[in-house]
């Protein structure tokens, strides 16, 4: 999955000002086909950009932060992989400092969440403990993780939902067991000085 995303976010696939998010989504889908990989949902590519640049629809521009979400099926098991990439502006050799700091905050939240994965805990217990630690760390966090396996949303505890950060009745009450796999899906909200925040 990571190699396909690296290819998809490369200069070979994306020409800023020309390529659309749909072009990249379909490139990923075709790459799956070439590699004889199944997928359990259509790849998605989206754009985050500063307010002053939001009027160009889904055409990828320099200075955009790209996000993708892909799910490969291989040997009957499913992945759920999300990554970000920054499209350098003319004259830039690296992403802006604020974006790199935001990534560090997101990585910190990942560490907090997986640190709360303890056998026997319910998804709701993991969610509450992780959100408490995130708040103590000053993070504006949202967690919406789920088990993976023979199904993209497999058997096991749901750990938050994008629209429910308190308690997920039923699926959030399932317990975590060893030898299970999870999509670590979450986000943090922060202001970026480079985007006027």
Automatic annotation (TrEMBL):
Official protein name in the record: Peptidase M24 domain-containing protein
Stretches assigned to the Peptidase M24 domain: 3-189
InterPro entries according to UniProt: Creatinase/aminopeptidase-like, Pept_M24
């Amino acid at each position: 999955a990571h190699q396909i995303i690296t290819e998809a976010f490369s200069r070979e696939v994306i020409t800023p000002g020309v390529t659309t998010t749909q072009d990249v989504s379909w490139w990923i889908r075709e790459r799956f086909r070439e590699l004889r990989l199944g997928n359990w949902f259509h790849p998605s590519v989206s754009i985050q950009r500063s307010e002053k640049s939001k009027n160009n629809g889904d055409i990828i521009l320099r200075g955009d932060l790209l996000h993708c979400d892909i799910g490969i099926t291989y040997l009957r098991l499913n992945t759920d992989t999300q990554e970000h990439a920054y499209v350098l502006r003319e004259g830039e050799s690296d992403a802006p400092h604020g974006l790199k700091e935001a990534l560090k905050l997101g990585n910190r939240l990942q560490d907090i969440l997986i640190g709360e994965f303890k056998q026997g805990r319910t998804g709701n217990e993991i969610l509450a403990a992780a959100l408490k630690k995130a708040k103590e760390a000053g993070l504006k966090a949202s967690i919406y993780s789920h088990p993976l396996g023979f199904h993209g949303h497999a058997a096991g505890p749901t750990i938050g939902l994008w629209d429910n950060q308190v308690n997920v009745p039923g699926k959030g009450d399932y317990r975590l067991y060893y030898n299970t796999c999870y999509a670590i899906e979450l986000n943090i909200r922060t202001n970026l000085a480079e985007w006027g925040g």
